[in-house]
Amino acid sequence: MTPTSGARPLPEPTPVSQPFWAALREHRIRIQYSPSSDTWVFYPRTLAPGTLADDLEWRDISGAGTLYTFTVAERPTAPPWADSVPQLLAVVEWDEGPRLSTELVDVDPADIRIGMRLAPVFCDDPDTGTTLLRYRPEDRDGSA
Amino acid sequence: MGLRGEAAIVGIAELPAERKQTRPELFTIDQYAQLARQVIDDAGLPPEVVNGLVTHGVAESEMFAPATLSEYLGLPLDFAERVDLGGATSAGMVWRAAVAVELGICDAVLCVVPGSLMVPRSQRQQPAATPPWYGASSGRYGSPQAEFEIPYGNVGQNGPYAQIAQRYAAEYGYDPRSTAKIAVDQRTNACAHPGAVFHGKPITVDDVLASPMIADPIRMLDVVMRVQGGAAVLVANADLARRGRHRPVWVKGFGEHVAFKTPTYAADLLQTPIARAADRAFDMAGLRRDDVDVASIYDCYTITVLMSLEDAGFCPKGTGMRWVTEHDLTFRGDFPVNTAGGQLSFGQAGTAGGMHHVVDGARQVMGRSSEAQVPDCHTAFVTGNGGIMSEQVALLLQGA
Questions:
Q1: How far apart are CA B245 and CA B293, in angstroms?
Q2: Could you confirm whether domain B7-118+223-398 is CATH 3.20.20.150?
Q3: N or C end of chain A, less CB within 10 A?
């Protein structure tokens, strides 16, 4: 794809990452796991980072996690987000260990706290068939 | 292991910072040539002694940059190097040049970083380029940033640096008056340095706190100002250093550590790579933290300065907010930092912003900082910082 300044770039699945994006379309979260080091891996790779083990396998996870850090961006980080400030840019740490970059939704910026429990939100783009993974505060009873 | 301290910075050059350039537009290859000429002249040496060159790349020639520059300058090279470490590029150039000189590979090495975007533009239709807002993130197919960062708006520097500051705040607390004081002290320094873009424009802590919020907790005056400029140093062996015009600034120690590209994947976001780089630099040089007379700390944001001072070992982790209020960081103070204004107040001429700190440290040790000169200045600590505190370099420079 060739994004212009106006269009919000969407991810294009690759031969390496395709299982992750395919699972998101089904509203499931699948990431990689390396049995030899008992380590979960994100983002997708062909060899396990650190050990370079050739044993990565895809496994489903719940997607539940905690907020590692965030910011409330009052100025757009780039022109495609000019009409969507404040941007709630977040780093979420999955319960399995890896972190991902995402955005928070359904939350008042004043209520965001590092360490808060978060649940996944699957955001479908019908035009491209892409599903992005965003996060919102977990309900009080712990359910998503 | 390490340097013997027998290679020195013998010349420095830095163009005055300009928001909008009054100098003629030059291709980056010509900016390199002009700065090379300036730094060789500053050293008081003839161009033919130069047989090493380091570059970050030139916009006109995506590949083969060292060879293109060698040909353009008419200087055959025994050491030709390209460094790709973002804001740590300049400090990374200096230690690579010093190592090459100490190994005897070459005698004098140009470390030049053009810093002006105002280049001649072709009248012909150009193929559509990647939008400039991609910055340090790659939108190319297969790039991790294209897939896992850019779609969520995690692009540019402000957001990720604010995320680092938020994590710091959650762990150690955050006083916006402390980070503001860093900007204020550096502005005081800029007011003593005529080349700075904010020369003659002092600010107060309240000015910083009243400036617009960019990405919480980072405000506009916590952020560098992009300028047009460029900077360079010449690194040479001891024989040439003794023939030069200025007090040689010996490269005594260095450290470099690269930990990640995107801070989301940092093992620990609050343990920045400068910790390891600084420890190695001080060990190599056989110097202690209190030997340092002047520090030039890469300052893309005020939080970068604060965390670098902590992680480089000048104050205990988590105490920086108080420490910066208890110390005078101006050139008159007890711990002078960024005495030419830093990038916050001198201005950031793109990648040349990293060379600003090398030049600042060397200028002080040479005793050439005029109104902003720190008395009895013999030892400078300089940092470079690339990406989002993801690749960092420490240098120790000494006058004897």
A1: 23
A2: no
A3: N
